Known about the structure:
The structure holds two protein chains of two kinds.
Chain A: E1 4-5, E2 11-14, E3 19-25, E4 30-38, E5 45-50, E6 54-58, E7 61-66, E8 71-76, E9 85-93, E10 100-101, E11 105-110
Parallel strand pairs in A: 2-11
Antiparallel strand pairs in A: 1-3, 3-8, 4-5, 4-9, 6-7, 7-8, 9-10, 9-11
Chain B: E1 5-7, E2 10-13, E3 19-24, E4 31-38, E5 42-50, E6 53-56, E7 65-71, E8 74-79, E9 88-95, E10 104-105, E11 109-113
Amino acid sequence: xxxxxxxxxxxxxxxxxxxxxxxxxxxxxxxxxxxxxxxxxxxxxxxxxxxxxxxxxxxxxxxxxxxxxxxxxxxxxxxxxxxxxxxxxxxxxxxxxxxxxxxxxxxxxxx
Amino acid sequence: xxxxxxxxxxxxxxxxxxxxxxxxxxxxxxxxxxxxxxxxxxxxxxxxxxxxxxxxxxxxxxxxxxxxxxxxxxxxxxxxxxxxxxxxxxxxxxxxxxxxxxxxxxxxxxxxxx
Lengths: 111, 114
């Protein structure tokens, strides 16, 4: 059973702070890692994907992957109230396999 | 370019009734996923199609659920008979190529079975 674990939160941070979201996974053979954002009542949308160990930056977002420790994280710099949402981590093994989603972490950015 | 289209957006039905959910893929995409999302279980994959062929249906809860892809751009998910525990938001998502490609989600169908 492939598992993806996230702290459900809520994680509350002040506006302008760095929000750090974490995700651990059980399948050591996993190759592809994704972060989706889901606003309340809306559908998930992809914000970052990462495939290699290390950091990947896109604007205010940084994804960090450590395959040896089997975790992937998402950092949001200069957090804004509009970043308040649930963040879903998804992990896929190599080959033509399907990502498994975590249950998500709720982020609240307060002014 | 239109995104993934789902209908209906909301469905309220009574236990025992048949429910049919519909999904239109993004043009050019060949992978189709049906998900179910609840507070208790999160986002669960029900079935995955590639090039109209069901590849993985291990997430389909039981025989009451069935999914079809009669052509490259359209899919249905049917629940017959429906039960209150089927109440959830059902998402359809499509992607181009392998399942690891970006999945684009539709707006979802909120199903309530009374």
